[in-house]
Structure prediction request, 419 residues.
Amino acid sequence: MKHIGEDPKERIISRFSNHVSSGKAEFFKSVNIDFVFGRREGPYVWDVGGEKRLINCHCNGGVFNLGHRNPHIIQALIESLGELDIGNHHFMSEQRARLAEKLAALAPGALSYSVFGVSGGEAIDLAIKLAKGYTGRTKVISASGGYHGHTGLALATGDEQYRAPFGPNIPGFTQVPFGDPDALAHAIDETTAAVIFETIPATYGMPVPEKGFYPFARELCSRKGALLIIDEVQTGLGRTGRLWGIQHFDTAPDIMVIGKGLSGGIYPMSATCFTDELQTFFHKNPFIHISTFGGAEVGCPVAMKVLEITSDPAFLEHVKELASFFKKSFEELRSKYPEIIVGLRQLGLMMGIEMVNDLCGPVLTKVAYDHGVLSIYANNNKAVSQLLPPLNIERSVAQEIIELLDRAIGDTKRFLKLC
Ligand SMILES: Cc1ncc(COP(=O)(O)O)c(C=O)c1O
Prediction:
């Protein structure tokens, strides 16, 4: 047990270590990062203990797409708290009905039904349950290096490193290299219930697939009787400059999963959206899936506000303009630091800074932190640092991010002695 001292910040760290996670506390100490989220507003977060300020370019993978404590989101929640609470998950609900109707109007293809959850992993689990239940098949194909969450079926689609301590994987789950049509064609067969991909795999370092990859996967799934599940937990809600990342590939999935940003950074909400045809499964089994807090009524107006903001063409145009600015700025940084920067993987503001080796991501994460930018390396490809600023930042903040990264990349190069 850590001694609880006098210094207020030390007390937080000791309490965290004693009662939440001693391993995390030890890890952050070892890398000399003692940041504890204190005041937060827009793209910024301040350390609870002092002056240090970070520009949030991690955004929890999209939770803070609209910045911290967005006033429109807060207002939506305040109004909602005036009359609602969690509601009842068995009964019919006006708020869930309205939110699902709005999603049906905005979703790609014909996804007219939605079931709500609390986390992305939960919504992925439901997508896979639905695929298995509807098709009566058991095989599920996902991408090596992909990530869909740490819950049961989501975990089963992911990398070995996250599953190894928990015994044998659930039978039927298999992985293929991402974006490889031949590997997918080879793996899929008449036992395949679903093929599941993140539109752009974030934890794998944002590789953007060929334009034809998803149309190919779509056609292949239809031909083999398998369902195509698209995970838009990170790429959805405007991140790529369109409302849904998959729209760049002119592909309509059978099931789409969203989470993170749907919360507005304020009230947890995820959704599994699916077609009329698939809802026939739930029609026969309406009580087969339950989530007490999923689609909590008080949170539905918050998610509605998120959809209203992110589907506005002017909002999406702003994302595209920022994306062009980052593209141009990174071309300049690449010319300035050719020994370290390989390129920018990018679709809108879904960005990954690709560097020369696996040491670069972790080192840049720390050095960027020291310079005031929170940007975390991709865990399944450490040569890439994820760059996910809020979507509504001013151009001046984007400029500041580039200036700070310029210095951080220079320091990373010197630290790793890359010349
Ligand atoms: C693409 C993707 N899918 C699913 C998840 C799981 O979401 P959650 O952590 O809310 O369970 C994540 C989380 O990082 C994610 O990045």
